[in-house]
Amino acid sequence: MPEHRILILDDEPEIGQYVATVAELSGFESTYFSDPDAFFAAITVWPEACAVIDLQMPALDGIEVLRQLSAMKFRRPIVIMSGVDRKVLESARHFAKAHDLEVSDIVSKPARLDELRQIFERLRGSIHLLPTRAELADGIARREFQLHLQPKVRLVRDGEDGLSYVPLGFEGLMRWQSPSRGLVMPDHFIPQIAAAGLGAEFSNHLFDLALNTLKSWNEADIDASLAINLSASDVEDLSLADRLWKRCANAGIDHQRIIIEVTETAAMQHPERALDVLTRLRLRGFLLSLDDFGTGYSSLVQLQRLPFAELKIDRSLISDCTSSEHTRIIVKAIIDLGHNLGLTVVAEGVEDESTLELLQGWSCDLAQGYLLARPLPPERARAWWLAHRNMNGRPVASE
Ligand code: G
Ligand code: G
Ligand code: MN
């Protein structure tokens, strides 16, 4: 059985020691630190450990600690502890989420023994569910992942009767068909792959799947584009553009049909390196798309420096369009901003017709979402395309 480790950061040694003891009662190996630098050093030694952090410390406040964990791409569960009121703890949780950190629990100090025990038991339970590095490495080596495909369409307004769309292509979303676990969704393996340092192996598998998909489409005369998602570690890999371009050339695939989606957070983690890698991809002729826009904290100046052709508005904004005036203002402003920067604007997560109508009214270019179709296994995606491709201007109807 793999060992489970917890690293605790608290400026008060008695509390740190107390939390460590309770964690050990729940079967964790645990170490506490009162010095943030020693804590961060330990994180680099044990990237698979969970973390417990105090929000209020004299040397470094908890938000700074979260920021640094995010910069280190820490992807394991975090328990936040503090004597500040619940509202501040909730804001810290939001901050963590926006920085791709996983907060498994928040605890008000003083933490009661039974409360801490429960938290650590839950943590143990949830860790058991996560795939280990060895399992993931095997799954990748055995090529157990699949690319599901979600249609992406262009919105058109034709005459009186309003809305319709033209199919353009698909976004590929990975699924893991694990023999022991069944179908595993990306939220349960993407962060683990990053934490396990298996990014390069995983993206090679993804490229295999993407090229095979395009090859099979060529044989069936399907001229759809294919978007794939890259993670922060890919965006730091200087050889990526050449490697992907060569693989397209060897497979006889027109690489201009591949759209590369990168999240704001991934692109901004090391902006200089990302600028280098993304520019090489662009020069090689791949189209770049900025994914999940509106969730991170990027600077618009950086955004303009990076060679994106497309901007995808995050589905958390799109889903609030019909209910929130505030969100409508933001989404409309993002669409205008995108257009002013010469970008194609895509709305993600469109689930109903009234949202699609709003987006159409704001001249949003493309849409994706359950209203049009869910991510589909390859065979069903192909059937969807064949059923829709000749229906230019088909009225919107859900799948
Ligand atoms: O359907 P959905 O649950 O597939 O996807 C959840 C998240 O996982 C999305 O944010 C998506 O971008 C991400 N994701 C899906 N496939 C991949 C992939 O191949 N690579 C990376 N880096 N992220 C992916
Ligand atoms: O890469 P990205 O974060 O954009 O991945 C898209 C994610 O959104 C995937 O998890 C996909 O399954 C999901 N998704 C796509 N369309 C919809 C939708 O209409 N509603 C919701 N709730 N999720 C969607
Ligand atoms: Mn995406």
UniProtKB/TrEMBL annotation:
It holds the Pfam family EAL. GO terms for biological process: phosphorelay signal transduction system. One of its GO terms (molecular function) is cyclic-guanylate-specific phosphodiesterase activity. SUPFAM superfamilies: CheY-like, EAL domain-like. Signal peptide: none annotated. Residues 129-389 form the EAL domain. SMART domains: EAL (SM00052), REC (SM00448). The modification 4-aspartylphosphate is found at residue 54. Residues 5-124 form the Response regulatory domain. PROSITE patterns: EAL, RESPONSE_REGULATORY. PANTHER family: CYCLIC DI-GMP PHOSPHODIESTERASE PDEF (PTHR33121), OXYGEN SENSOR PROTEIN DOSP (PTHR33121:SF71). This is Response regulator receiver modulated diguanylate phosphodiesterase. It comes from Ancylobacter novellus (strain ATCC 8093 / DSM 506 / JCM 20403 / CCM 1077 / IAM 12100 / NBRC 12443 / NCIMB 10456) (Starkeya novella). The lineage of its organism: Bacteria, Pseudomonadati, Pseudomonadota, Alphaproteobacteria, Hyphomicrobiales.
